Each structure stands twice: as C-alpha cells, then as structure tokens.
Amino acid sequence: MRHLLTRRGLLGMSALGFGRIVLSQLLAEGADAASPALYSDLRPRKGHFPSRAKAVIQLVQNGGPSQMDLFDPKPMLAKYAGQPHPDGVEIHQPGNKNTLLASPFEFRKHGDCGMDISEVLPHHAEIVDKLCFIRSMHTEHNNHLEGLNMLLTCKIFPGRPVMGAWISYALGTVNQNLPSYVVLRDPQGYTVGGKQLWANGFLPALYQGVEFNMSGSPVHHLEPARQMPPGAQRAGLDYLSRINKLHLDAHPGETELESRIQNFELAARMQVEAMDVLDIDSEPPETKKLYGIDDPIRGSYGRRCLLARRLVESGVRFVQVMTKPGQPWDHHNKLEEGMPVISTETDQGAAALVKDLAQRGLLDETIVMWAGEFGRLPTTQNSDGRDHNRNAFTIWFAGGGFRPGLIYGQTDDFGYKSVVDRVSVPDMIATVLHQLGLDHRRTQFPHGGRMETPSDVTVTGARVVGDLLANEVMAG
Q1: What percentage of the chain exceeds 70 in pLDDT?
Q2: pTM exceeds 0.90, yes or no
C-alpha cells in the first residue's frame, strides 16, 4: 500500500521534529486569535442571546414572483397602461416593449391590517393578519441562479453556505435522530441550481441540507439494498466505525471524514424515527383537508408543507420547501394564464402551514419565510409578460417574533424600485438569525484567510431590521 506523506508528516520527520513544534505553536496562536468556537457536530447549542424562534421553514418561490400582481398593486399601471414609463425606464432585451403593463388581476384589502391581496391567492387573504410583509426588498442580480444564490447565501456566485447550513452549524439540532436541515423538493425534479441551493459551501459537510423524498423511500439509501441476516448490518457498521477511527486518529481535523461518520450514524438512527415522522397518512382527515392533500393540483405542495410542520414539530431546525421543477413563477409571457397556475398549486399549502402552526402553538417559535429571488418589471415583455427586476420585490414572514399584520416599505408608483424603508437580502438574513438568538456578525467560520459570516457583513454592512420585530429589545 502506498503511503502519501502529508505536509504535517514531513514537518514531524524533518529537522528532529522542530517543524511540528513550530506548527503546533502557530496553530494554537491562530486558534486563540480566531476566538469563535468551531463546530463539527449537531449537538444543540445556545445562541449569543435568548431567541424568539427555534426553527425556520423556508418556502422558496423560485422564478421571481411578480410583486405588482400578488402583493403590491399599482393603480398607475392601469392608468398609463400601454404608454412608456414616464421616468424613461428601459430594459434593452429582446421582446421588451418598454410600455407599462397593468395587472390583469383584481386586488382587495383583507384583515385588520388592510393588506392588498390578489385574487389569485384567496388562501393568503385569510391569514394576512398573521403575516409580516416586506414590500421593499431589493437584490443584486437579474438572473435566476445568481438571484437564488444571493437570496440564500448573500453572494451571487456559488461556493458559500446557504442560510440553512449556517443555522445548522451555529445551533445544531434538538433531535439527534433526524437531520438538522431537511430539503423537501418536488418529486418530479430539481429547480434551477439543484443541490447548490442547499449546499454547505466551506462549512463541514454535516451541515448541508438532507433531501427527503416525497415518493418511494423517503430518504436516499436509508434502507439496505438487499435483505441482510439479523445483526449483520450492525456488525458491518461497527467494523466500519473502527476503521474510520483509525484513519481519523492518523488524520485529525478532516471534516469531510468526520461528517461522513456522523452521517452514517445519523442514518442508522433515522431508520427508526424518520419513518414515523414522514408518515403523514396518520394525520386526521381535517388536517389533510386543510392542506389539500387529496387535491390533484394542490396536493403535492400541500403534502410538503404538512411534512415541514411535522419535521419542525419533531425538532428539525431548518426545513426548505421547494416548488415544482424549473422556474414556475417566471412569467415572461402569458402572465394572465401562468400566474393562476402556480398560485393555485402553492396558495393553500402555504396558508395551511401558517394556520396549522398557530393552532398547535408552534407559530411563535417557528419562522415561516416565503420568498423568491427577485421581482418583475412594470413594463411589458412579449406583450403579455414581465421580465426580471432586482430593484423591487415582496416577501413575507410569519411567526418567530416577526410583527403580524405589518406592511413594511414601499416601492415607487409603478413598482419598479424600492424607495421607502429598503431592505437588502443581507439585512433579511441578519434579521432571521437575530430571531434565532444569533448575532450575524459573531456567527463565523474561517475560510480563505478571513472569518466569514452568514450576512457577509464586512462587505454588505448588513443590519437587523428592528421595525419588523414584535415588541423586541434589540440584542447586541
């Protein structure tokens, strides 16, 4: 067998071992200078200060939902429909006519908060007083994948950990028999970006999202490929554990190996508990009806939302729910036809999740986040659609100490740009972490010669948006 000599080994063997002594001293000094604790396990951890929330359910609306057709009506679009934008807004791409497009949908005010909701979201209209709307979001890129990367990592390029990975790293998880971070995607396929949207980046691999299947075996490779004699699997795992320990003792600090060992052990524990959590057939009929489980159009997304509730109820820290494959909110044309399709598929499940969490007393400690990667333009594309717009979009939160019934921020008269109480993506991520008891500036991991943070605060200047929070004394 070939034995490759590592740099650490070379320092140990050369110059009577003085190289290893110097290296050990440098590493110790570096550890003292870095100061933040570094983790490689999923044991539950306390945040920097008391938290309002314990878990997050992230409803990713991939494709770029149109704010002026869902949550942010603009009468000026109807008044000046077919005319050029008065401020000379022009987007030079094929198919863009640069004339204003009125929303084809009717809006009505709902709830005590008087929130405007489009007719395509009737179930959202029932829960507006539980939601915290941010109409003044803005981001940094007009392409889907870069926009999704920004929404989840605070950078437009791949390679950074997503929000769920950071939260799993910083807080661990309550239930040691389930992953800290679970991904629920449509069984028909992936959205643009695929597994990049739940990647651990430079964090240990243990903190990446774990996909749960919505059909067939719920977890990849959870069950043996063929039937084994009693005790054979346990004996094999024990033998593998001994070999891994020998290798780990010889190569300390290899986070990939440590993560693989812990993942194998977690998989063994999941064989018992995961099957119970994923059994939504045990839910009472009224709960299934609430989520539209048996509806051929609404049922697939509703099932994922119901499973998200069961997972956080069982101690999972972060659950990411995806829509159907591709970019279903991406309406470059035929907006009037396409918008009701994806709205109908997702509206009931999202609203049911908020209602169900509230009924069970879980909403106060669970953050529900509904967000796409950007918004849409007020001008036309292909005569009956809208192009991407990074300058303005609407997202909403529920629970976890976010102010219910709040309508925060404003866009201009045509919905092109956020102009009042603007909120950036790093601001949003900093605020979510704050509700979980984490200071986004002190949640750190060394990479590339610097201490990285979830909000990339040294570059973005992210802040916690205190006005979004209910009766909070700002920590930090």
Answers
A1: 81
A2: no
